[in-house]
Write a structure and sequence with these properties.
CATH superfamily of the largest domain: Glycogen Phosphorylase B
CATH class of the largest domain: Alpha Beta
CATH topology of the largest domain: Rossmann fold
Order of helices and strands: HEHEHHEHEHEHEHEHEHEHEHHH
Radius of gyration: 21 Å
Number of strands: 10
Strand order of the largest sheet: 7-6-5-8-9-10
Structural class: alpha/beta
Distance between the termini: 37 Å
CATH architecture of the largest domain: 3-Layer(aba) Sandwich
Number of helices: 14
Length: 308
């Protein structure tokens, strides 16, 4: 891993030089600080171009804990013309790395308002082939420990008597699948918890619309798109305080924040499933942050860093 950034730079240098001759770039826009951003800053120095590096989440939340990678994160951010963080939480962590605050600009992610919008829940359930009269919870994210699916499954197990029709659908795939399957068997939840694996992105809007509540029990995040996408469908979100999540769920009218343990999740889920939510208001608020708006902000920021 410590060599990835340099290898990416060396492998792309001749191609980028040729493209620069053909297109005459004004700047380089790099996403993910290492290895992508590291390689981009090297390219920028070779071509005498300004580089703006965007931090997405794992690059700062996790990679900064790696002894050999942390110095390369700092090197990249210090030598970039500027940096973008997708959340204020990430910005604060970049400052903790020693990056000047003035160098970092927060531009949060947006949502695809054409794909993620308010749909009729029963119609969505019919299209997905799931019970129309069920109490549906959805958790979308890779099957890895940090996403917390195991905690949510354990919380669902505590609520089976209170909610006999409760069903959990986990959308995603990953190395943690076998452990989740074993947990489902241990808790005897085979008729209540369904591990769907990867689903087409265009299908996610149906799952969010079908759900009474969407959940994300992460231990770390940047700006998780699945939270914004669920809200844009009018679905309330139950989530942890990780990363930029509190910057998305800014009102108790949009969702609830819980601690990352089974009891807190179970209590929060029970409250969320018994609360009357105004799904139209949730969707209306969340759809105001479109990708077009984000693109305009990024474009303006890049232009401000290009040498005239």
């Amino acid at each position: 891993m410590p060599a990835h950034g340099m290898l990416m730079y060396l492998a792309s240098l001749s191609l980028v030089r040729r493209l620069h001759r053909e297109q005459n770039f004004d700047c380089i826009d790099a996403h993910f600080v290492y290895p992508d951003g590291f390689a981009a800053v090297r390219l920028g120095r070779s071509l005498n171009l300004p580089v703006v590096v965007s931090a997405r989440g794992t690059d700062i939340n996790l990679y900064s804990t790696f002894r050999l990678i942390r110095p390369m994160l700092r090197w990249t951010l210090m030598r970039a013309a500027a940096a973008i963080a997708v959340s204020a939480d990430l910005k604060n962590k970049m400052i903790a790395l020693g990056i000047p605050e003035a160098k970092i600009h927060v531009i949060s992610n947006g949502v695809d308002t054409e794909r993620f919008k308010l749909l009729d829940a029963k119609s969505a359930r019919r299209q997905l082939g799931i019970p129309e009269d069920g109490i549906i919870v959805v958790s979308a994210g890779s099957m890895i420990e940090s996403k917390g699916h195991h905690l949510l499954i354990a919380a669902v197990a505590k609520l089976t008597e209170r909610f006999p029709k409760l069903r959990l659908y986990v959308v995603g795939e990953g190395v943690y699948r076998a452990k989740l399957e074993e947990l489902v068997r241990q808790k005897q939840l085979q008729e209540r918890v369904f591990l769907l694996g990867n689903r087409p992105n265009e299908e996610l809007s149906l799952w969010f619309s079908a759900a009474d509540v969407s959940c994300l029990m992460s231990s770390r995040e940047g700006w998780p798109n699945v939270v914004s996408e669920a809200l844009a469908c009018g679905t309330p979100v139950l989530a942890t305080h990780a990363g930029g999540i509190p910057e998305i769920i800014t009102s108790p009218e949009f969702g609830m924040l819980v601690e990352r343990n089974v009891d807190s999740i179970a209590s929060g889920l029970e409250q969320a499933l018994t609360k009357a939510w105004n799904r139209e208001n949730i969707a209306r608020h969340s759809r105001s942050r479109s990708w077009d708006a984000v693109a305009a902000e990024v474009e303006a920021f890049l232009k401000s860093k290009v040498r005239k």
